[in-house]
Please model this.
Amino acid sequence: MTRGERRQLPAPVVEQNAVTDKQCAGESIRQMAARKADMVKIWLDGAGGLMPKVPPEVYSAVIDEAHKNDLRVAAHIYDLDDAKAIVRAGVDVIAHGVRDKPVDAEFIDMMKARSVWYISTIVLDYTGYVFAEQPSWTREPFLQRALHPAVRAQFDDPAYRERTLALPATAKNRAAVTTNKQNLKALHDAGVRLGFGSDSGVGLRIPGVAEHLELALMVEAGLTPMQAITNATSNAAALLKLGDRGVWPPASLPIWWSSRAIQLPTSAIRGRFTRSGIAASRRRDRSRRSRPESAATIGASSTLNARINLQRSTAVGLRIRDPTSDLIGRQKDPAGPRS
Model:
C-alpha cells in the first residue's frame, strides 16, 4: 500500500517478496521504503503445515529494518504461540485472529503494553463453509448481484455443497470461527485496540459482502452493533493513520432508513436497530409532518453523529447503497488462494 498518487488506484499496490534470510529481509524492506510503502505484512503461520514458517531471526530482521525506515509491520498469524512471538519481536498489527486456542492474560497484557492492533477477520474461515450451507441470506439480491456467474453456479451445485461440508477442513474452519469469536470478545473486553478486516477479494471473500459478514460475525461474538461499526470506521482509520476519514463531524452525515432491510446472518446487522441501540429523541419535522424524525448519535463513545430519518416503526431497516452493484464480473477464479 502506498501514499500519494497510488492511493487513487482502484486497488492497493501489493508486492510479495520471498524472504529467506536476514540480509534478504533488510534489502527487501529498504526497497519497499524507497517505493513509499505504508506498511509491511509478514505471513507467519505455516498454513496448516503446507509451508515452512518464517524463522524468528528473519521476521525479527524484517520488523527491525521496517521500523528503521518508519514502516509499520502487520503479521498474518493463526496460532497463539506465533502471535505472542511476533508481538515480542515488535510487530504493530496482528492480522487475522488467534484461532487455535483461547487467548490468555499474558497475550492480552502484551498487546496492551505495546499498543498492538488486532484484526480478527472472522469471515476468513467462515466463508470456507457458509456458502455450502446455503443459509437464507445467500439468496438475497445483495449477495446474488455480486456473484460472478461461475461462482453462482458453484454455490448452486449440490456436489460442491456436499463435498465442502464433508471436508476435514470444514470442521477445522467451524472451530476456528468459534475460537476467533471468543478471542475477539475477550480482547475487546480487555481494551485491546481492535481494527477491521475482511480479506476481501481473496477466495470467496466477496468484495462488499465480506465486510457486512464480518460486521455480523463481530456482533455474534458479543459486540454491540455500534461497537462493530466503530471497529470498521473510526478504529480502522486510526489503525491506518488516516485522520481524514472514519469519523464524521456532528450532523454532517445523512443516513436514510427504509423498511427494506438487507438480510444478513444476524439480526443485529440486518440494518435493524431497536431503540435500545439508538439514543433517540423523537420529534416531528414541521416541514414534513408525515415523517417522524430523530436526532440521534450512533457509534460507540459518540464517534459518529448524524441526523437519522425514522419511519413510524420502532425497529426499522437501514437502506444503504449496494456496494456490490458495480463489482459484477470482477471476481477471480472461485478457487482462490488461502490468505
Observations:
- The two ends are 17 Å apart (CA to CA).
- Residues 53 and 242 are 32 Å apart (CA to CA).
